[in-house]
């Protein structure tokens, strides 16, 4: 048994010089490339899903094509991680609108064009966060005698 170990040492099977370094670098490079491609594909797939969720949510709010384009532009300009967050968070939405209005006010546009754009932003805000009518918020109590409800003061 001792001779077998001595023979393996003589053949240098376990020495680092046995594998050619260019081949080792090529293998490591291919593994790195494969990992990069997998992570890149996963990132792209997640980004596409977030964009789809964003567009689905805008469609459910009955936004016009122009409103959807403005919201998509805001999300791209201010690089939100999850685009749909802008439709769920009023403080975030207001923060982005403030930045956008500051940007638009310094552009060389007519005051009428700026006013129309700001009005469009306000319409989007209304649709996204305050779309319910007062009747939908709190239904009217049924009319008639309320004998089944106990009095508030006894």
Low-pLDDT regions: 133-139
Q: What is the molecular shape?
A: elongated
The total count of helices amounts to: 6
Q: How much helicity do the residues have?
A: 55-70%
Overall pLDDT, averaged? 76
Strand residue content = under 5%
Largest pleated sheet: none
Elements, N to C (H/E): HHHHHH
Cα-atom Rg, whole angstroms? 32 Å
Distance between the termini: 101 Å
Describe this protein's structure:
With 154 residues, this protein is an all-alpha fold. It contains six helices and no strands. α4 (90-105) runs antiparallel to α5. The N and C termini lie far apart (101 Å). 7% of the residues are buried.
Chain-wise SSE layout:
Layout: H1 2-11, H2 21-60, H3 65-77, H4 90-105, H5 111-129, H6 134-137
Helix pairs in contact: 4-5
Quick structural overview:
It contains six helices and no strands. It has 154 residues and is an all-alpha fold. The longest helix has 40 residues, at 21-60.
Defining traits:
single chain; 154 residues; mainly alpha; 6 helices; 66% helix; 0% strand
């Amino acid at each position: 048994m001792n001779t077998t170990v001595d023979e393996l040492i003589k053949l240098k099977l376990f020495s680092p010089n046995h594998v050619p370094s260019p081949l080792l670098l090529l293998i490591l490079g291919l593994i790195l490339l494969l990992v990069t491609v997998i992570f890149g594909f996963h990132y792209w797939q997640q980004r596409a899903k977030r964009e789809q969720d964003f567009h689905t949510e805008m469609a459910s709010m009955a936004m016009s094509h122009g409103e959807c384009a403005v919201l998509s532009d805001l999300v791209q300009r201010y690089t939100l991680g999850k685009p749909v967050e802008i439709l769920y968070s009023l403080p975030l939405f207001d923060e982005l609108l403030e930045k956008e209005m500051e940007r638009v006010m310094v552009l060389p546009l007519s005051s009428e064009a700026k006013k129309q754009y700001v009005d469009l932003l306000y319409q989007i805000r209304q649709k996204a966060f305050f779309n319910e009518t007062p009747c939908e918020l709190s239904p009217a109590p049924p009319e008639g005698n309320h004998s089944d409800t106990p009095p508030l003061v006894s």
